[in-house]
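Predict structure. Chain length: 200.
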Amino acid sequence: MMTYWIPNEPCMLPANASHQVGVGGFVINDKNEVLVVQEKHCAPELVGLWKLPTGFILEIFTGAIREVKEETGIDTEFLEVIAFRHAHNVAFEKSDLFFICMLRPVSSEIKTDDLEVQAAKWMALTEFVEQPLIKGDNMFKKIIDMCIARIGKRYCGLVVHKVVSKFDNRLSSLYYNVVDDQKFLRYGNHCTWFAILCYC
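Prediction complete.
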């Protein structure tokens, strides 16, 4: 972004954002099918890849629901953040935060966004994970392993909770996991307590 401060004094314009925030929606139905898309505009090596609906967002849980709806026409309910990735110097030398979210479908009829999406469909989870680009990418394979573990209740994700802090009296989204006492006693070593705070 180019700017020019007209007064003959130090520029008072705030610096441009240092991070971009994106989300990927892992939507799985009762038939163990994952909602996937093929993008219209992508790198040559990604042509033909069936991937999760993704996009840039402002708020994690509302953004995940919106991106899935925009690309596929499917209405969803946000369940939890499964994992997130932090990488530096990505697009436009920005740091990139990318959140993988699990969502439950509340509709099933696909209506694709013709501007961004080439195709969309429900794909068997077993077929999805067998794609060469998925199997060959260590990070994405780990993400899918966590999603599958969450389906089997062997993994704890982060659920959104709306809270107001007395420090600033602002409504915020606090993401943390809630573990049943008995399950925590049994599986406590497998669940890491973690929280993300997002201002609205």
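Summary: Residues 83 and 143 are 7 Å apart (CA to CA).
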